[in-house]
## 1
Amino acid sequence: MRGVTRALMAPVWRTLPWRTLGAAGGVGLLLAATARVSGTGGEPDRWSTLTLLRAAALAGALGLAFLLDDPARHTTAAVPARRPVRQALRAALVAPFAALWWAAALCLAPAAARPPVGDITLEAAVACVLAPACAAAVVRLTDRARPGRAVAAALLAAAVLAPLLLPDRWALFAGTDDVRWEAAHDRWAVLLAGAVTLWATCAPDPLRRRLRSRLRLRRRPPSRSARAGSA
Amino acid sequence: MSAVVTPRAAPSAVPTEAPRDGWAAVFALARFETRKLLTRLPTLVAFTVYVAWIVWHATRSWDDHPALQNVDRVTQSVPPLVGLAVLLCANSAGLRSRRHGTEPHFAVLPLQPWRRTAAHALSVVPAALLTAVCVAGQFTWEALKPGAVGHGSPAELAVGPLTVLLFGATGVLLARLVRSAFAAPLLTVCFLFLFVLGTGTSGDDATGWLTPSVPQLGPTLPSGLLDRPAAWHALYLLGAALTAAVLAVLVAGARHWTVRAGLALTLALALTGAVAQAAGVSPSPETTAARERASVTPEKEQTCVERGRSRYCAFPEWTAWTGSWAGVVDRVQSLAGGTASTQGLVVRQRVEARYGLESDSALAPSATAHQVTVGTEWGGNRVPEFATAVAAVLVAGSEKAASDMCDGRMVTVMWLSVGWQDDPLDVLRRVRLDDSLKGAAVVLAPTDPLLMTSDVTTVVRNLLAKPRAEVTAKVKEHWAELTAPGVTSARAARLLGVTAPKAADTCGE
């Protein structure tokens, strides 16, 4: 299996959506850098820096939503390396760049107004894991070869609606001076665990559906022949 | 033979009819795209959330006295979100033929790509019109409330629909510039955080006014003091939206001189609006003088009404509320005793407009005897806050004297303030800054807040537990002693026949 994985590395590297990821990363860095020029009277504003870092994380996550897009999905289904291996390989190839990118985004934000690094990184991690996890769920539950667009749209909608609609008890988007910051980050940690679980659950190839389709195949011919018989 | 010639003659008719047919096809395509655009999931969700927000906003119980010069700016806050949804959907529609690989099929049709782009741009207009209907509905709803005062501005109301138009046209333009489905979500993220959540700039400088909506919502001011370049901003938005649409058509291959002329014209519109609004960002000297006058010497601007024993002076737009103020003053006075129950008061409306539209600066307490300050907002918590100010002036003589008050007189003030309410305990909790019913707390008022010590809180709660008529009779009986400076809350409790607290009042805690 290790040999297969090594052999897969180069083709997977080539099929990764580098242009999308690059565009997302670029826009994310641009947003993080905006925090330097925004704010009143030259003083960087804590709230806008936090919001812009969240925007950068969201931009990166939108790029990662396209991570599992694989136009050749239906032909690669037959390769000996199973889907979890292929998805893990994609994630592993992208992860170092994503980490570097996030570090750069943090460095671009003005140091005086930077929110706690660990906590904001947790938020970014949730967004960046949730996006491919949702893509994995779409891959698992449907026959789509490119789940990216739908997942990106859903993620965007969630990012717009969650701050508006979440009740106070489940608040996630707290400010740094907010008393709910700590509790909100406990919730973010739970979300990260949930996203990882979702990905782990959805990564394997479905066995049952294949069983069901086999049953359907077995059932169909008699009905067709019955119809032919009645005609 | 003739059978062969006749079909050949038919195509020759096509070029002469092409222009008219072209536009008919454009409108037909625009109708189809409109239907698609308005039934896409993001647009549906956005409009649902928008309508739900309008209903929620209009039915809040504390919002039954709207000032229309603020309502028109409130209508600008959610349409940018609708605009983002329209941007996404319009962009996705513009790229649909490429995504589904039907571009070569369309290439054989007589409808040129730029006409199809024009149809996409036109399909955004109904979404903007629907937003206009929502904005009009929201404003009408607020304006029809019995407590509505002030004047709205059509230019401010136009900003919401024009934002949707601008965002939608940007989506179409983006589809022609970048042939990737990923560009629109990324642009949406940038727009969301820079324009909608307002992390970019404020409304005090010219660059801030380049963003679509600049609500500058602060304390309510008379509409004559606002002086916002709203009409120029609307022109700027219209120009920018049309520029984006015409540019998209131009990029799609229209090389006709009318398109170029249209681009120049729309660009000129946008630039005129941008330059003119930049000139109007800082208030004119006349406005600054008017704001100064309204803040320092409001009596020169106001009309006064006599109701009962008291005089109610309000800015011309607010005279409709004097009846509600008089109702509160009468009820508070009905609980008072001595000369206070017949004392004529001057209720004066005051604003602080000198520090701009967004600064929520506090009003200084008035030193004039028997003058009570009332703000420009009413309903909800503003009612018990005003009642507290009336009670404090009745007990202490003036707002200035009341703000230094720290003794058992606060018992009487708070009894007068909330004793007449249907649910006095709930009102007492709401008027205290920390929403508590125990311990010391700051009590809000239109000017400087007052302080309730924990003893005062205990005595007032004990009073509220007793029958209203009994307490009222005792308050009237011992009025002189209860309002004498230096009376302790323990003494007040004994006079009123409730359990006295053990500790002494200390305001410094």
Note: The longest strand of chain B covers residues 303-307.
## 2
Amino acid sequence: MELVNEILQTVLSGISIGCVYGLVALGFVLIFKATEVINFAQGELLMLGAFISYSLITMLNFPYWTALLVTVIFMGFFGTLLERTVLRSLVGEPVYAIVIVTIGISFFLRSVVSMVPGWGTDTYGFQTPFTEKFVRTGELVVSWEYLAIVLITTALILVLFAFFRFTRVGTAMRATSQNQLAAVYMGISVTRVFSLTWTIAAALGGIGGILLSPITFVHMNMGFIGLKAFPAAVLGGFGSLPGAIVGGLIIGITESLAGFYLPEGWKDIAAWIILIGVLVIRPQGLFGIQEKKKV
Amino acid sequence: MKTDYNEDIRLFKYRSTFFWYLALVIGCLILPLLLDEYLISQLTFICMYAVAAVGLMLLTGYTGQISIGHAAFFAIGSYTSAILTAKGVPFILALPAAGILAGFVGVIIGRPILHLTGLYLAIATMGFAFIVDEILVRWESLTQGNMGFYVDPPSIGPFIIDTELRYYYLTLVVLILTLFAARNILRSPTGRAMIAIRDSEVAAEAMGINLAKFKTIAFAVSAFFAGVAGSLYAHKLFFINPESYTILLSIELLAMIIIGGLGSLHGAVFGAVFFIFLPQVIIMTKDYMPVYIQNQTGLEPALFGLLIVLVMLFEPMGIYGRWLKTKFYFEMFPLYKKDSFKREKKYQKAERH
């Protein structure tokens, strides 16, 4: 019984980390589907979100939920701004050039955060309504911090699903990701779709940042979690939104179990080994669709 | 007028080109005599990174296969060379051995993952780099893990390469040999097969090119050069530990060739110059900034990131692209139009539904 509990606990903490990976991976996939660009700055957007919510909560004494809302709005705005000022002028340029630009942005954001007064290179934490609260069922003790991540992510996924399924804008975004030319013919403004994609991706990054901060704390290098979300997105097949979440969960659970049961050092590479294994057998990821470009 | 196909693949396009390159080499030989030790060591780093960048350029710029895992080959080269010289093998043998082992590992991991395309390949190579990094940390009996590994200055016979100047000449010679080899590979049938694969895999296959074979060759050659560069790196720093070979190095190498200009050997060298000299320039301009900003440790990476963004915004084809445009401007004077190089901005049509 104890062993079962232990495994359950480990899996649960894996699921909650996996949800954050999934959120970051969603950001990757959204931008990739719309613009074919891999956004290397997605992890840094998460970090920025975490720092902003930290400032709101500890410096300006905002309640947690208000801070969450303000951060999401701010990050959405930041994403739009980024798209308008930098990325829009690159539409139609080679994709790799744009990828390098996102790498430049990630360097820039990480260093700028370290230069802002009150942020710097230290590690911070903040109080949330879930701190130090636990749910007990029998032998099983689950921290509310972990549960909150799972619940908020689930809610978010439902909202996103509804958005893409039932709204006109969501449909326009799906159409653009399938065929930009046809979308233009149908009267969809592709540039506006791009802009909106960056807004949503940045906002998702912001939420991921808030959710992750109680677990890893807030520091300038927390954006490197983006490197873990990468295999998550690929595992799911880079073009699939549910795939990103499933991929995140698989990576999170594997990591958690490997960290607990395997010798030191396996935790960081278990996810990669699984990823390479999956890719060797299924080159397009678990949920991906084999792309065949016409010649 | 061309009368022979061989004219298309000559090593130097015109006789004058040869003399210009000769002048460049002589310039590189004389240059360090005018500089102080610190700047010479920066030139050494340029040559070293340029070797790795040429390797990655063959894979990414000419064969079209993206790798975000070249830090792994760099690391394998470094450790091979460090361990071999520590065991008494002369440097002159350890240097190629480092490249060969890296190339061999490239073949082994290349075979199963090279049927992946684009993004998936990039991620698989990235995973490979993480795994190699972890092995270097954990295999302490061989690599001494995080403690790091001390490396002796290299010697060729009785001649010990222990000054900055001598080391610069060593790396310069290796870089020239690398460029010469790369240029020759590119004009051979193998190189032309690689370029054909980049331009269209389907068309290349239809022409009878064995995709798996040539992709693996490209991967191996690319890993070989990265390994050689890694060996040079180890003997330059005298101390290596796994922290020097993180994902950031892989990303830097990739950024180097893209900023330099994909699909040209010039671009690889330009990219290395950009990446080594830009931080120096930033340090020099530091004196003119407000005191508060001056003392921030984040200043250099921030400006570096900003400049990368600006360079790509200004010139998406990279530094070599700008060079071509400038050359074209003078050749065509006064007929050059602003739109001569303008790409047709087209909407992408992804074939996924």
Note: The longest strand of chain B covers residues 149-150.
